[in-house]
Amino acid sequence: MDNEINQPPLSNKYCPLCGVVLMWEEFEELPESRRPWYAEVRAAAKQDHHEYSMTGVGILDSRDCLFAPMDEELDYMNATEMEEVELFRTESDLHGFGLHDSCWMLLQDRLWHTIDSSKVAQSLYDQFYCIPCPLLSSLRWGHDYGGAERWHKPYGMPMPVDLPLLFQADPYMVPLLEKIEENAPAFSDGQAYDTVHPRSSIDLNIGYSNSLGKLSLELLHEVISYLSTQELLNLRCTSRALARRIIFQSLPPSFWKRQFTLGYGMDFLFPDLEHKRDWFRLYRGTMAYLKTDDKSSESLSLLNRRRIRALVEPIASLVELDIRRSKEPRGRRANCAELKPGQWVLTEGLTTLPAENVYTAVITSETEYLPHGCHTPRYRISTFPSQMPNGGEIKVSTVKLGARVFISGISHHPHNTEIKTEDAVGHEYLPGQKTIKVPPNAISESIEVAFCPEGLRGIRFHLSESIVSEWAGDIDDEEMSYGVLRIPLAVTRTYNLLAGSDAYKLTAIGIVNGDPQDQKARSDRALRNGPDLSLAETYLWRPHRPNYKNLRISQFQPNNTGMPYRPLTDIDFGGPDGMWLASLTGMEVHVLSTDSPIVGMTFNYTDKILRFGTHERGQRLQFLIDGPRGERITDVVAAGHGSEEASCLYAFRITTNYDREMDFGPSEVRPGDCVPPKYEELFERSREGLITGFVTTQRWNEKHYAQMGIQVRLLDAKAATNVASPQKSTLPPLVD
User: Which residues form the F-box domain (predicted)?
Assistant: First the structure.
């Protein structure tokens, strides 16, 4: 009974393709009539942990169980046997991911029914398995499901009437194409488009329009037949001459037919392109339905169908690719583990080596589903040349999962080499690929990376002679963190690149020294002493990576390892070479509660204010600092609370060179907490530096700081003397 009480509530499930709820209803017996489209559900199922299939159409009589026939051709109305499929969990013998039958049929239309449904089911399962599913409710693709996410309700009873009419409309109940043609309004070239796309009164691109103007009408039509209608409208706007030559009702049928092919604006209808019809009329009729103001059921179904069609495309593209590629990542098999924060050990066969540095996404220990981040990756290692005497290429493959682009594989291709084996890690044959040209004798010095909690999003290479490649992938995301991997200069001119991956993307990347003559000495030394965790390049940073020289990081408190993915938030209050410290007049710490107290900081200067984290709510604890007269922060200690694995920053104390102190923490004390907090300085640090900032870590989807450390700039003797000789302060000893 206690176990039942402690179980979290079951969450509502949402379709991974369209984002509309998989409606559940309690039935004492099977219904005798058809249910609404959002209550008719299939599953991309996995049975006995290795057999994939698409179930028939079933119904949900609870939030997490689908009752459906295993035969794809049957449904709950005609099946004699139904099986229970557990949804969005992966531990039971029969489980899977639910999706609407209408969405499944749209996906089948997109694939033209050319792929065996069991292979489609396996690809869908693999894709869904790699995507986070917070609260076991909806997959997190990086988009809002075309607006449907706004109505997601993980708990409670979702009501269809709460949904906008657009999301209630069955995307498969669209009018027949013949009826759409009949709905086509009469066309007037000028009236139909000039109100939306006015023609220019002057030629905006004379050379371009004149070059097209020299073509015969037949050749002009042939050229523009590859354009979408939007591109054609834009082209007409560049020149009055083109606007006169391009008359819509005179365009050949091939132009209008192309608008219904894959990749064009009307491809959501999936018409039979071999069938002879008036494609211009069909286009006009479809636009009339889409632009109508009466919001009839037919118009809403077409609009919803178009929305879902756009969401399905990246998924369908990967299904097509999965059929002809291996999901086994390239490279030599290896194991990798983090012994303690920042200290990674690589095992390849019987050889154990320390990794120079490893960056990873959020690796979850959850086995049944993916709440966030990524599953434990498969590690591979490959030996890459750090120098290509004859030049060469670095190829980076990318993959699009939902709205986000990830790095999926990396390979090196030296020119004019006798070595025929491929130097590669990760996946190949994925749709996106960027080729980076490497000049002869250029030396690879470092690899800059961009991570999000789900994996590697961007990568670029820094070569000698200040050569920096363009970014491969996508780095435009609020959740991004950045780091740099230094490539060791070995005698062999090689280095080992370690990569962890799931079925599609890289989720970890690291460097291992490639010089066999130095490996044993480095291994013994590194395993004994561990890496230098004071270096800024040891960590991922957000929102950007500091580029200061002589920067050291230390004193992370509380001593909580947490997840391997723990990017540092850069709280830089000192500025370049500590130049801002002379104008620092005070700091504020923002505290919300006793459970997760510290959420933000504000620093006040004579000429500006810097804010970090959350600063709009909670209690503000203030401390004045006489920066203009030489007062500096000289020491910081912190205290945490909670268990070792789940502890977070509870309070911290700063001390200045004026022997002034200030405690920042909650004003109310939790039962069982130390009074006062127990501060501990965990690591010794060099006293020849200047504290110019803090660093903090946060757990996924939480606002409060989990850990805190300090940034220290190492100074020369002259600078250190100046810092150590402050003027007398006129401030009171403590202000709070």
Answer: 209-259
CATH code for the part of the protein at 332-531? 2.100.10.30
457 and 542 Cβ atoms separated by less than 8 Å: no
Q: Which of 673, 601, 609 is nearest to 641 (CA)?
A: 673
Alpha carbon distance 214, 241 (integer Å): 11
Residue 245's pLDDT is what?
76
Could you tell me the pTM of the whole model? 0.86
Residues 6 or more apart whose Cβ sits within 8 Å of residue 668: 594
Query: Greatest CA separation found in the chain?
Result: 92
Say if residue 519's pLDDT is above 60: no
The encoded tokens of residue 251 equal: 């365009």
Read off the pLDDT of residues 335-388 as tens digits, 9 standing for 90 and up: 988 887 778 888 888 888 888 889 999 888 777 788 888 988 999 999 999 999
Mean pLDDT of all residues in the chain? 84
Q: Which residues pair with 693 in a beta bridge?
A: 572, 711
Taking a C-beta distance cutoff of 8 angstroms, is the pair 191, 328 a contact? no
Q: pLDDT (tens digit, 9 = 90+) per residue, 170-221? A: 999 999 999 999 989 887 644 344 333 333 333 334 444 456 666 777 777 7
**Domains in the chain: boundaries:** 2-168, 177-291, 332-531, 551-723
Whole-number Å distance between alpha carbons of 717 and 532: 24
Strand 83-87 versus strand 94-100 pairing type: parallel
Condensed to tens digits (0 to 9), the pLDDT of residues 71-125 reads 999 999 999 899 999 999 888 899 999 999 999 999 999 998 778 999 999 999 9
Round to whole Å and give the CA distance between 244 and 189.
10
pLDDT of residue 190: 44
Domain 551-723: top CATH class: mainly beta
Convert the pLDDT of each residue in 276-311 to its tens digit. Answer: 999 999 999 999 999 877 789 999 999 999 999 999
Ramachandran angles phi, psi of 641, nearest 5°: -145, 165
What is residue 370's three-state secondary structure?
Answer: coil
Six token digits for residue 678: 């127990």
CATH topology identical between 332-531 and 551-723: yes
Percent composition of the chain: helix, strand, coil (DSSP 3-state, to 5) = 25, 30, 45
Tell me how far apart the alpha carbons of residues 610 and 145 are, in angstroms, rounded to a whole number.
36
Which of 603, 605, 568 lies closest to 587, judged by CA? 603
Residue whose structure tokens are 């009589």? 61
Note the helical H segments in 116-215: 117-129, 165-168, 177-182, 189-193, 206-213
